[in-house]
Amino acid sequence: MDFPVFMALLICALTVPGFGDMGSGKAQSCSDIRQFYNGKGFSLNGVPQSEISGEHLRICPQGYTCCTSVMEDSLSNLSRTEMEGLIRDAGRALQASLNGQYKVFDGYLLELLNRSEGFLQQSYPPALGSLYTQNTRVFSDLYTELRRYYRGSNVNIEEALNEFWARLLERMFKGANGRYLIGDDYLECVSKQSETLRPFGDTPRDLKLKVTRTFVAARSFVQGLVISGEVVRKVSQVPLSPECMRAIMKMTYCPHCRGVASARPCAHYCANVLKGCLANQADLDTEWRNLADAMLQVSNRFEGVSSVDVVFLSLPTHISEAITTMMDNIDTFNNKVFQACGNLREGGTSSTGLEEVKRRGKVTVEDSPTSAARLEKLVSDVSRKLRDMQPYWVSLPSTLCSDRVATRAQADKCWNGMARARYLPEVMGDGLASQINNPEVEIDITKPDMTIRQQIMQLKIMTNRLKNAFNGNDVDFQDTSDDVSGSGSGMCTDENCPRGPRLMAPSTDRPKVYAYPPENKKVVKASADHNLPSIALYLLSLVMLLLRR
C-alpha cells in the first residue's frame, strides 16, 4: 500500500468524533445537568464538564453520558425518596378524608347520646320526683355503659340493658313496698319472677333489639373508618424494592444523564414501572372494595324508623313508658310476687317514692326532636366518599403518572427507558401475579410483601365484622390481635411477626420467576447520536485490512 494512502486512512480513523453530536464533532456540554444536579442539593465535585463514556453506569443506558457512578447513585436514591414521598402524600390525603369522616360521625353519634341523656335528666325529675333523684346512678350507669360499648370496650350491650332493667325493677319494687323489709334473697326471687311476669311490658325486649342493632351498626361503622385509615397509613409506608428503585431512577433521571432532560416518560412506560413497583399494593383491591361495600350496607342502618338518631333520642321515652306500665300494674305484680316468693315482714318506711309518682300523675315524656336532615347529609357524604375510594389501590399508578408523562402528541419523542422514541410493550395488568412479564421491573411473584398481606387480612376481618353488624349480630372489637395472630389465621401482629415469608414455600422448592431484563429490548431505539465509537472501530478495522494487502 502507498504510504500517503495509509496515512490518510490513519488520520481518518483517529479523527472520527468519539462522543457528542455527530454533526459538530465535539463532545456535548454537561452544563444543563450540572445546573440541575446542583439545584437538587448535590456537590459539583467530580461532575464532568462534557460527556464521558458511560461504561460505568449500572442503571442508565451505557452510551455517552454526563453522569458519573456517584451521580447515578445519588440520583437513584433521590428518585426513590421522591417517589416514596408521593406515595405517602397520596395515602395521607385518603387517610385525612377517612379520618375526617370518622370525626364527623363519631362526634355526631356522641352528641346524640349526650342529648338523649340530657333530655332524660331534664324531663325525669318533674315526672318521677324522688324515684329518679334517689336513683340517678341507675340511669347514668346505663348511658356510661352505652358509651363504653360504642367506644369499643369489652361490654356486652344486652347484659348492660338487662342489668339496667334489673336495677330499675329493684328500685321500683322497693319503692312500691317501702313499709316492708326486703332482703337480697327476696329481690333475687323477684328478679326471677320478672322473666315471666314482665312488669315493664314489651319495652325491654323491643328496646334491646333496637338498641343492639343500632349500636352494633354505629360502632362497626366508625371502626371501619378507623381500620381503613390505618391500612392506608401502614401500606403507604412500605418501602420500595431495590428493583423498583432502579426502574424509577431509569424513568426519572436517566434522561438527564443522556442529555434529553426535556423528554418526559412515555405514558405506557410509566404505567408499567409503577404497576410493577406497586404490584403488592394493587392486591389490596378486592378486600378494599369489599370493605367499602360492607360499610355502605351498614350505613343504610342509619336511616328509616330505626335510624340511629331516632333510637338514641327516644331512649328516655321508651324507659318512661316502661315505668308507666309497671306503675299501672304494680298491685297485680306484687300479688303474684308474694304468691311465688312469700309474704314480706313489715318494718320499712311508711311513705314510698312510687306513691309520690302516682300523686304526680301518669309519667309522660315528650319525644326529643330528631336530626333526620343532618344525619341524611352525613350518610350521603360518607357514602359518596366510600364509593370514590374503592378503586384507590389499582388507580394509584395512573394517579402518580398523570403529572409526569408525555402527551399523546409526544408519543414518538417520549423517554422509553433507553432513548427518546416510541414505547412498544403492552401495559401490564394489576396485581403481583400480572407482573410476571413486566419489562421494566424485576419481580419475584412468589414472594408477596408480608406487611401488605397482614393488612389484607385486617380488611377481611373488618369486612366480616361489618357483615355481622349488618345482620344485627354483636361483634367484639376487643383483643383484635387474636384475629391476626390466632392459630387459625395464619398471620401475625406487627410486633411479633417473623420477617421471613413464612407463608411461602422455600425458594429451593419454588424457583424464582423474573420479568424480562430491565433493559427495554422491545422498544425502538433513537438515532445513534451517542454510538459513534463503533464508527472509529470500523475504520480501524478497515486500515488493518488494507495493511495486509
UniProtKB/TrEMBL annotation:
Record-level GO BP terms: cell migration; negative regulation of fibroblast growth factor receptor signaling pathway; regulation of protein localization to membrane
UniProt keywords, alphabetically: Cell membrane, Disulfide bond, Glycoprotein, GPI-anchor, Heparan sulfate, Lipoprotein, Membrane, Proteoglycan, Secreted, Signal
Locations listed in the record: Cell membrane; Secreted, Extracellular space
TM ranges: none
Name under which the protein is recorded: Glypican-1
Record's function text: Cell surface proteoglycan.
Family to which the UniProt record says this protein belongs: Belongs to the glypican family.
UniProt-recorded Gene Ontology molecular function terms: fibroblast growth factor binding
InterPro entries membership: Glypican, Glypican_CS
Main location: membrane
Gene Ontology CC, one term: synapse
Topology class, membrane: Lipid-anchor; GPI-anchor
Chain residue ranges for the region called Disordered: 482-512
UniProt signal peptide: 1-20
